[in-house]
Write a structure and sequence with these properties.
Helix content: 40-55%
Strand content: 5-15%
Strand order of the largest sheet: 1-3-2-4-13-7
Radius of gyration: 22 Å
Distance between the termini: 45 Å
Mean pLDDT: 88
Number of strands: 14
Largest sheet: 6 strands, mixed
Structural class: alpha/beta
Length: about 450
């Protein structure tokens, strides 16, 4: 297959180039003097590209990737502007869409993608997929997010999933067995709670992360047989016994078991959740797969395992997309850039660093795993979880129509977790406010 031949030839070269470049990028505007693709009149094309500052390491990797791209494409400049993330980022883009001033290319949050498509703000790129760049090579969760009514308006950048990290040194000192990295032998939530209690001391919390609902709640709900939205994603379905049970257990881990700190504890000690795990103040952390990059760089004795389950063993998958504005003056040049950002070569460098996970079936094949897998980053348990990652269910936040829904869930559950609101009022408010936000987005 032509696609795999191209991949095998270029993969290692690009990874090496990105890592050699390291964090040396200083100018966020990149130019080129060799390669291909300029405006029809021969003038230099400048693509405005925006994203968010997820971390200095990710921003540096994006800038280094841009430098590689422009060397291969004469007559193209890329002005990259990283900025604020979350609701502020979406609000800025929505304002730009309303005034026809969208950037040519952009990061698009998965939970906002459908809203922007419904407003006609993104360029349809369905016809760009072919033998060399096949849509069918994307894993199911990524392909489902990309496709809207059989049409595609953005390319998934990678996939990321919540998983369980643990500090092996804390486990060893307590004489507690590590969790299995084999999904078939993963802990139930009851088993997880018991281990967390065993690991909890005056100086150590057994776990953290269950309450960070933006990243981990959906997997817990689905595992327990619940759902966040209706089949058409136009109605919130959180007010159910299945969801109620999950929220009550999350709170019980902290309040009844005494195994987890709340967010204010982290604020008071001036540490992030990852730093709490690194320093042994937390024994287990449920967090996004992207945290592996930081944990691996710290040199800590870290292990990884699937999420504890309520029934079905699973994790969720999603990630931002790379999209082209419907109103760009340079659709062909913008597509070339998106194709590069979404390429297996570029993605591979970030997968090797532990920041991303592959969203292509090809990259889960043994030959390709050998090219991006690094023992010093991924450890000995990661390979046991590859099928778990590849078969992740779609994070439902990526398929609904308003990015406000995620903020509503976070705000309302925080009130419940801090005893400012009871569970029934919390679930009723989530459904009511989310339905209103979805209706507003679809107007």
């Amino acid at each position: 297959m032509k696609f795999k031949k191209v991949l095998a030839a270029g993969f290692i070269i690009v990874i090496a180039a990105v890592f050699v470049a390291g964090c040396s990028s200083k100018n966020k505007t990149a130019d080129s003097n060799s390669g291909a693709a300029s405006a029809d009149n021969g003038e230099t094309v400048t693509l405005n590209f925006i994203g968010w500052e997820a971390s200095p390491l990710e921003t540096a990797a994006v800038e280094d990737g841009i430098a590689i791209f422009v060397k291969e494409h004469p007559g193209i400049k890329v002005n990259y502007t990283p900025g604020l993330a979350g609701s502020e980022y979406n609000a800025k883009l929505l304002t730009a869409a309303a005034s026809n001033s969208m950037p040519d290319v952009m990061f698009m949050m998965a939970n906002a993608y459908r809203q922007f498509v419904s407003k006609g703000a993104l360029l349809e790129i369905t016809d760009k997929f072919n033998e060399e760049f096949p849509l069918d090579d994307f894993i199911d969760s990524s392909r489902t997010i990309m496709s809207i009514g059989g049409k595609v308006y953005g390319v998934s950048s990678c996939t990321v999933s919540p998983i369980l990290y643990y500090n092996k040194d804390v486990f060893d000192e307590a004489g507690v067995d590590y969790p299995s990295s084999d999904p078939a032998s993963s802990w139930t939530m009851d088993e997880f709670r018991e281990v967390a209690k065993k690991l909890t001391t005056d100086d150590i919390y057994g776990c953290y992360g269950l309450e960070t609902v933006a990243d981990t709640l959906a997997a817990q709900i689905i595992s327990n047989g619940g759902s966040r939205y209706s089949a058409d994603y136009k109605t919130s379905t959180m007010n159910t016994p299945e969801v109620k049970e999950v929220l009550e257990i999350i709170k019980a881990v902290r309040v009844e078991d005494g195994s987890a700190p709340d967010a204010t504890t982290l604020d008071s000690v001036g540490m992030t959740a990852v730093q709490m795990l690194e320093t042994g103040k937390v024994a287990m952390l449920i967090d996004g797969s992207w945290s592996l990059q930081e944990l691996a760089a710290s040199g800590m004795n870290v292990g990884m395992a699937p999420l504890p389950s309520y029934g079905e063993v699973l994790t969720t998958g999603q990630a931002h997309l790379h999209c082209v504005a419907a109103g760009t003056k340079y659709p062909e040049q913008a597509w070339e850039f998106v194709k590069f950002l979404s390429s297996l070569d570029y993605q591979g460098s970030l997968v090797s660093s532990g920041l991303w996970m592959p969203n292509r079936k090809s990259m889960y094949e043994e030959e390709m795993v050998a090219k991006w897998y690094k023992e010093e980053v991924h450890g000995d348990s990661y390979k046991n979880m590859l099928d778990y990652f590849q078969k992740a269910v779609v994070d439902p936040a990526a398929l609904q129509y308003s990015s406000k829904c995620s903020d509503i869930i976070s705000e309302e559950t925080k009130l419940y977790f801090t005893d400012a609101q009871d569970i029934d009022a919390t679930l009723q408010n989530i459904d009511k406010k989310s339905d209103e936000a979805i209706s507003e987005a679809l107007e």
